[in-house]
């Protein structure tokens, strides 16, 4: 593990950097608004996440800069005998720092956090065009076992 990398729950002060990171790819540039000032909707969403014990927004810090982010959602379920699953979403690493192990450390941290919360499994979706991401997640032990579908609600 990089001794200079810190992974921790995000604070409201981290929101602008997280939004900038979410916007910095071919999908995010179409759906995010990293304006100054940020639209209030981002801060409202952060407060909702922060106040929900089944959600966590997380950041990775290197040399006092946010270099990664992801969100964890814990879903209690009747299936698997009343177990809890963890979903990891919106995983991003600063484009300039990819390939340096930051994403791996973030995901290992996320897996440990899910175990601490008593989860029996972790799941994620990744865009079908992100072939490098698919290899990355497979290298961590994830398997493509389900077909993910999305519906945009107007």
Radius of gyration: 16 Å
Structural class: alpha+beta
Spans with pLDDT under 50 lasting ≥5 residues?
none
Count the beta strands.
5
Please report the first level of CATH classification, the CATH class: Alpha Beta
Provide the helix percentage: 25-40%
CATH homology superfamily: Gcn5-related N-acetyltransferase (GNAT)
| Strand arrangement, major sheet | 1-2-3-4-5
Which series of helices and strands comes N to C?
Answer: EHHHEEHEHEH
Mean pLDDT: 91
**How far apart are the termini?**
43 Å
Shape: globular
Identify the CATH architecture: 3-Layer(aba) Sandwich
Largest sheet composition:
5 strands, mixed
CATH topology: Aminopeptidase
Strand content: 25-35%
How many structural domains?
Answer: 1
Count of individual helical segments? 6
Task: Please give a structural write-up.
It contains 6 helices and 5 strands. Helices cover 34% and strands 27% of the residues. The protein has a 5-stranded mixed sheet, with helices on both faces. The chain has helices at residues 15-23, 28-31, 40-50, 79-82, 102-116, 131-139, and strands at 5-9, 55-62, 65-76, 84-93, 119-124. The mean pLDDT is 91. Strand 4, helix 5 (102-116) and strand 5 (119-124) form a beta-alpha-beta unit. The protein has a single domain (5-139), classed as Aminopeptidase. By secondary structure, it is α+β, with helices and mostly antiparallel strands. The radius of gyration is 16 Å and the shape is globular.
């Amino acid at each position: 593990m990089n001794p200079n990398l810190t992974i921790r729950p995000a604070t409201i002060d981290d929101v602008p950097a997280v939004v900038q990171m979410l916007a910095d790819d071919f999908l995010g540039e179409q759906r995010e608004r990293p304006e100054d000032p940020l639209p209030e909707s981002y801060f409202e969403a952060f407060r909702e996440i922060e106040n929900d014990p089944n959600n966590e927004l997380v950041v990775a810090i290197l040399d006092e800069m946010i270099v990664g982010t992801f969100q964890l959602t814990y879903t209690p379920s009747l299936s698997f005998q009343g177990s809890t699953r963890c979903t990891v979403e919106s995983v991003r690493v600063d484009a300039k720092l990819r390939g340096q192990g930051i994403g791996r450390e973030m995901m290992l941290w996320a897996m440990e956090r899910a175990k601490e919360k008593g989860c029996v499994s972790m799941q994620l979706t990744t865009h079908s065009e992100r072939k490098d991401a698919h290899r990355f997640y497979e290298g961590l032990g994830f398997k493509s076992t389900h077909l993910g579908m999305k519906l945009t609600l107007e």
